[in-house]
Amino acid sequence: MPEGLAKRAEAARVRAMFEAAGALPVETSVLQPAELLLDLYGEDIRARAYVTSDALRGEQMLRPDFTVPVVQMHMQHGAEPARYTYSGEVFRRQEDDASRANEYLQVGYEIFERDAPHEADAEVFALMSSVLRGLPLRAATGDIGILMAAVEGLRTTARRKAALRRHIWRPKRFRALIDRFSGRSEVPASRLALLAAADPFAQAAPEIGLRGRREIEARIAALREDAAEGPLGAGEVALMEAILAVQETLPNALEQLSDIAVDMPAIAKAVEGLRRRTGALAARGVDVAQLAFEGSYGRASMEYYDGFVFGFYAEARADLPPVASGGRYDALTRQLGQGTEIPAVGGVVRPGLMLGLKEGSL
After folding, report:
1. CA-closest candidate to residue 302, choices 66, 132, 135
2. CA-to-CA distance for 276 and 307, rounded, in angstroms?
């Protein structure tokens, strides 16, 4: 059988398994409005997506994933609770590694469930595990919600918290902000001179670019306000670093995070959620004693994940992308719901990678 047909047959098999689990099959357009995706992800998405323009519809983007259009569809006219499945191509630009596919099949399973979010997390993970059973994969899990709760609990300004929240998915930038806010890194001399100047525009060059004078003045005022704020406490920074450093089996990670929560009560609710999810996973037959948990896991995923995150990776091919991945995205439903929201979680598998692992061609 030709390779393309074999991949589609594998995708159809996986989608049938998701339908058997109660999912309603849905379709989405290959071309998606770029404005919405740029609003959600920021301009960073341009580096990973194919963008084109239409005289009538404006900028359009080849579908980078299915989740956003499925959420839109559900928030407009979906029932509760709901389970959906889909299958089709997604498109990602590859500028660093020509061996990685820029177009590939994805099959997904999404749950919109208001009353039992931890059980829904466990359902998605267990279903993905069953679909992938027999393949040489390792599973990794995390919880972005714990890190978000830790940021919210910091004794600092709302502006600093917002900056840290925005860069949770950019680990290097997040680290740089922690170092700056804690006083570990020095403020550049050029910035100090700007903040100290009575009139920052006195010897400025002509205004060019998209930012006007008012925006620049607002930014300078914000920098001055931040410079006047005291540093983050060393204890808080140490606790944040301890969360990010957790890399254990799920029961041991839960114990470590529970200990951290004693000194950082802001994460207690999120850690309790992790405890309930662990119980729900065990109830579905997942061997939680062997399941890996990483405090920093998921920070290279799509930015809409805000809770449980997971991935399945080929044990012998660390260079491959995840064969399956997913997570919780409650906030995304709030952004797209126009006044309504519902807890939601989902995951996707790549049938092409599954087939390659089965046949030993990867």
Report:
1. 66
2. 13
Instruction: Indicate the SS3 state at residue 82.
Output: strand
Cα(10)–Cα(132) distance, integer angstroms: 12
> pTM value?
0.87
Q: Using an 8 Å Cβ cutoff, are 12 and 88 in contact?
A: no
Residue 127 CB contacts under 8 Å (≥ 6 apart), including other chains: 17, 18, 21, 109, 347
b vs e for 109-147, b when ≥16 Cβ sit within 10 Å of the residue's Cβ?
Answer: bbbbbeeebbbbbbbbbbbbbebbeeeebebbbbbbbbb
3-state secondary structure 5-62: HHHHHHHHHHHHHHHHCCCEECCCCCEEEHHHHHHHHCHHHHHCCCEEEECCCEEEEE
Instruction: List Cβ neighbours of 264 (8 Å cut-off, separation of 6 or more).
Output: 150, 153, 236, 239
DSSP string, 277-294: HHHHHHHTT--GGG-EEE
Q: What are phi and psi of 186, to 5 degrees?
A: -80, 145
CA 202/CA 212 separation, integer angstroms: 16
Q: Residue 132 and residue 315: Cα distance in Å, rounded? A: 13
CA–CA separation, 178 vs 189, rounded Å? 19
CA distance 103 to 4: 12
Block residue for tokens 């389970």? 83
Report the half-sphere exposure of 97 (CA within 13 A, side-chain side).
9
CB atoms within 10 A of CB 264: 23
pLDDT in tens, the chain (362 residues): 677 889 999 999 999 999 999 999 999 999 888 777 777 666 566 667 788 887 788 888 888 889 989 999 999 888 889 999 999 998 887 766 666 778 899 999 999 999 999 999 999 999 999 999 999 999 999 999 999 999 999 999 888 899 899 889 889 999 999 998 888 876 665 555 555 555 666 556 566 655 666 666 666 666 666 665 678 889 999 999 999 999 999 999 999 999 999 999 999 999 999 999 999 999 999 999 999 999 999 887 767 899 999 999 998 888 888 999 999 999 899 888 877 899 999 999 999 999 999 887 77
